[in-house]
Amino acid sequence: MMQHIFRRGTKEEKPVLVLLHGTGGTEHDLLSLAELVDPEASVLSVRGNVLENGMPRFFKRLAEGIFDEEDLVFRTKELKDFLAQAAIDYQFDPSNIVAIGYSNGANIAASLLFHYDNAVKGAILHHPMVPIRNVPMPDLTGIHVWIGAGANDPICPQEESVELKNLLEEAGASVGIHWEHAGHQLTKLEVNAAKAWYQQNFS
Ligand code: MLT
Predict the structure, then answer these.
(1) Which of 36, 96, 105, 175 has the most CB atoms in a 10 Å sphere around its CB?
(2) How many domains does the chain have?
(3) Is the CB of 61 under 6 A from ligand 1?
């Protein structure tokens, strides 16, 4: 079970936007972002089940930027199972999910892509990292991914954003990358760029 908010959209055929917050966030954080990206879509906003000094996260880390890979794999499956159950409970199509994540939330969304070919059909990743290395990737053909990266992001160096793009592309995904200069922050400019990409791919 994961704490969450579900809001049914006005257009059933729209993707279900799965919102995944950053470290220390909650399921309330990204609701306004979903409203901006697609006000007609259903929204499932999830709170991470791990606590780090009281701050919710989607998986454990050993240090800043160093992930507990065993927990990452376990939590990625937990989220995948939660989405499958939510699709039954709220009666939406589990093959019609677009994830929107920021920072730690973007990392668990990227991990869904690294482990499953059918978890999401698209993902907007704001300031993601490479979640795990040296795992066999699923076939991501037909999956659309957008990366919002920071040219001077202290948490994720430029090369790592490019590495993530390359790994996803090698697995078959279509990947767009957008650069901002505001460090690790999520800016209005970046959200607007994500919205433009979403409208091109999913509207
Ligand atoms: C992570 O731990 O997922 C990344 O370091 C980003 C963050 O601080 O949440």
Answers:
(1) 105
(2) 1
(3) yes
- Residue 184 is among the residues annotated as catalytic for this protein: yes
- In the chain, the DSSP E strands lie at 4-7, 16-20, 42-46, 50-52, 55-57, 61-63, 66-67, 97-102, 122-126, 144-150, 174-180
How many other C-beta atoms can be found within 10 angstroms of the C-beta atom of residue 172? 14
Give the pLDDT score at 203. 76
The verdict on the CB of residue 4 being under 6 Å from ligand 1 is no
DSSP assignment of 52-74, as one string? ETTEEESS-EEETTEE-HHHHHH
Note the Cα 183 to chain centre separation in Å: 19
Q: What is the pLDDT, as a whole number, of residue 186? A: 95
pLDDT at 83 over 80: yes
Residues in the chain: 203
42 lines ligand 1 (CB under 6 A): no
Place of tokens 């901006």: 36
Q: CA triplet 63, 57, 95: central angle to 5 degrees?
A: 125
Phi then psi for residue 176, to 5 deg, are -105, 145
Query: How confident is the model over 160-173, as pLDDT tens digits?
Result: 999 999 999 999 99
Given a contact cutoff of 8 angstroms between Cβ atoms, the answer to whether 21 and 56 are in contact is: yes
| Residue 189: domain span | 4-202
Q: What is the CATH number of the domain that holds 193?
A: 3.40.50.1820
Q: Is the pLDDT of residue 141 over 90?
A: yes
